[in-house]
TrEMBL record:
<protein>
    <submittedName>
        <fullName>Uncharacterized protein</fullName>
    </submittedName>
</protein>
Amino acid sequence: MSAYSLTKTQFRESLWEGLVTAEVKGALPPEIVVTLQDKAVAGVEVHDTGDEGRWLLRVPVPPEAVGDGVQTFLILDGSSDEVLESFTLIAGEALGDDIRAEVDLLRAELDMLKRAFRRHCVETA
């Protein structure tokens, strides 16, 4: 079991950020390793927050990770090789079959039907 936990705080402008928290008091800064397709991601930063046992993790999304398909990043505790968190980018044709894309399409169609029904109600009243 890892001596750390990780909570995502935000993901914007190609930068994933999270808060690493030590599970035990007096823990040393974590050794964080982020992988994409079994290769280490460059530019990963761990910054001290000023609070004991808490660090800010910044993971830059490399340009080669943005494209068609599914890209999964694994964030590991380097000392135990345990996965602390993961995040996924989905783009292009792979997204077409994704359930979230289908739900978004259904919502758009439902909104269209609601407008048509309301218009029908106004015209027949």
